[in-house]
Specification:
This protein is mainly beta. The chain has strands spanning 2-7, 10-13, 18-26, 28-39, 46-51, 57-59, 67-72, 77-82, 91-103, 106-113, 117-122. The strands form two sheets. Strands 2, 4, 5, 6, 9, 10 and 11 form a seven-stranded mixed sheet that branches.
Length: 123
């Protein structure tokens, strides 16, 4: 199993910045994609940004130019630098890790979600 743990959420004024971090631990053999999702009240969870093991990135149109995703493969961590924050960025942010693990049944792969961290942007 893999347990991603997010940190760095909080309350910030519009125009401000926050940096989210996610550390994955467990019986990890390798990590492929690491993604950040968010879910605002009454809305579906949406992909914010993703990064592959090779460093390729993708972003939601709504955050392009403001958010930057990065990862440290040696530490199994992923970060999300969020600048020029807007009230509409308010949501719970989740880290998702796609990983290969080793256990009693041998090698397995799957998607693992963190518990989420709240980001609130005031106007």
């Amino acid at each position: 199993q893999v347990q991603p743990v997010e940190s760095g959420g909080g309350l910030v004024q519009a125009g401000g910045s926050l940096r989210l971090s996610c550390a994955a631990s467990g019986s990890i053999v390798s990590i492929n994609a690491m993604d950040w999702y968010r879910q605002a009240p009454g809305k579906q969870r949406e992909l914010v940004a993703g990064i592959t093991s090779g460093g390729s990135t993708n972003y939601a149109d709504s955050v392009k130019g403001r958010f930057t995703i990065s990862r440290d493969n040696a530490k199994n961590t992923v970060s999300l630098q969020m600048n020029s924050l807007k009230p509409e960025d308010t949501a719970v942010y989740y880290c998702k890790v796609r990983a290969t693990t080793v256990g009693i049944k041998g090698l397995q792969w799957g998607d693992y979600w963190g518990q989420g961290t709240q980001v609130t942007v005031s106007s």
